[in-house]
Design goal:
Elements (H helix, E strand, L loop, with lengths): L1 H23 L7 H5 L5 H13 L10 H7 L15 E3 L7 E4 L4 E7 L8 H13 L10 E7 L15 E4 L2 E4 L21 E8 H15 L4 H17 L10 H6 L3 H34 L1 H5 L5 E2 L2 H9 L10 E5 L6 E5 L4 E5 L11 H4 L6 H7 L3 H16 L15
Protein name: PD-(D/E)XK nuclease superfamily protein
Organism: Stutzerimonas stutzeri KOS6
Pfam families: PDDEXK_4
């Protein structure tokens, strides 16, 4: 394992060096949209963005150019819209995007991860029938359905989304309900009505990506073009959740290595994962000894002894009935004793009195900065060192003597 570890550490240093070079060159992984919303957010992100850009009367002031590019991604029979009269709207709690010109309507159902709702598309057809084409028996040349999805090509059968219809190729053929209409919003066609509604699946990849790229090319330089570039980055993250980064993490870097080196890196990461909690407990205990002295840590008061073994049990939550909780030590201070305690999820340091340090009345003052301690220690590259910095600062506020830290974290400089 020693040779594998050496090779993997060399690879890790190469990755860090390469990442620093990329940062200096100005490469980054920042996305304004992704910083505000999850890339898989169907309604708030994708449907709203699509509607805002497809709308010829939208605030982009580019007319129907983006709508026309979207329609070019569809078969010919779906493109027959009067762009001068076209309206694009979002129906609250209903149709994701509805495009219509008074003569024809295009229902766009947007799906990423959310399940299909019961009778969903049939309800939308019923809604359009009542609002736009009330009284007409045949919607075959009036309404079409686009199933815009990242992963699925059609609604699940379990949802009965197409209630009353059967999907034959790219056509929804009316068959009736075979009894009572199961939902008030469903269409009211006669059982023997000859209705055939065009249905087409538009995949996010590549169709929506291509649309965003084409729109970026057509958009004027500046905010509108930047918006499409941002949206394209969101689609890239959605399609390739692990490989979109320009500044690589260890997992994506390992995936880029040849098979032999990849296997070495995998073995090394397994070994490192098994050793991580032991290392954290050992390094944390060594840091606390350096701050307060080993003798001071022995004074445990009402808590479990603050030593490496108990820190490991606390970190890994080992023990029945939360026996791992409340590892701590009590220190002398000018007025009253001060305690440091690892409670359940957080750590506290403050003056001891009748109330526990985590009592609602005083927990905010006693809480050691850093939030959830396990998450900090296990997920941040300098987590244990930052946490020791936070303890050092809290000790100073409480009047507890602590030795200066030899190697402060970057967060404390």
């Amino acid at each position: 394992m020693d040779e594998i570890a050496k090779r993997c550490l060399d690879q890790y240093r190469n990755m860090k060096s390469d990442n620093e070079r990329r940062k200096i060159e100005g490469l980054h992984d920042y996305s304004l949209i992704a910083s505000l919303l999850k890339p898989s957010n169907e309604v708030t992100l994708h449907s709203r963005f699509l509607c805002s850009m497809l709308n010829p009367k939208g605030l982009h002031y580019q007319g129907s150019v983006f709508l026309e590019l979207f329609l070019k991604e569809l078969p010919e029979q779906f493109r027959r819209f009067d762009l001068e009269r076209a309206t694009v709207v979002r129906e609250k709690d209903s149709i994701d995007v509805l495009i219509h010109d008074g003569e024809r309507a295009l229902i766009v159902e947007n799906k990423i991860d959310a399940p299909d709702q019961r009778y969903q598309i049939s309800r939308y057809i019923g809604c359009v029938h009542r609002k736009l084409f009330a009284g007409e028996e045949d919607l075959s040349d009036r309404v079409a359905v686009i199933y815009l999805s990242a992963w699925r090509s059609q609604p699940s059968k379990r949802s009965n989304s197409l209630a009353g219809f059967s999907l034959a190729g790219n056509v929804l053929r009316w068959e009736g309900y075979g009894g009572t209409k199961p939902h008030a919003d469903l269409p009211d066609f006669r059982d023997n009505a000859n209705v055939a509604i065009p249905f087409h699946h538009v995949p996010y990849f590549p169709s929506l990506v291509r649309w965003a790229e084409n729109c970026a090319e057509m958009a004027p330089t500046g905010g509108i073009r930047n918006a499409f570039e941002e949206y394209r980055l969101v689609l890239e993250r959605l399609q390739k959740p692990k490989s979109w980064r320009k500044i690589m993490r260890l997992d994506s870097y390992a995936m880029s290595l040849p098979d032999t080196e990849q296997r070495d890196m995998y073995a090394f990461m397994i070994e490192a994962q098994m050793a991580l909690d032991r290392f954290i407990a050992a390094r944390l205990f060594e840091g606390l000894k350096a701050l307060f002295g080993e003798a001071a840590l022995v004074e445990r008061g009402p808590f479990k002894t603050l030593d490496e073994d108990n820190l490991f049990k606390w970190l890994t939550k080992q023990g029945r009935n939360k026996a791992w909780e409340r590892v701590g030590a009590v220190f002398d201070a000018p007025t009253r004793p001060v305690a440091l305690v690892f409670a359940s999820e957080f750590a506290y340091m403050g003056v001891m009195d009748e109330r526990p340090l985590w009592d609602k009345a005083c927990r905010h003052a006693n809480l050691i900065h850093g939030g959830n301690v396990r998450r900090l220690l296990r997920t941040q590259q300098d987590g244990v060192y930052r946490f020791l910095d936070y303890i050092h600062k809290q000790a100073a506020q409480c009047g507890v003597l602590a030795a200066p830290l030899k190697n402060k974290s970057s967060d404390a400089k």
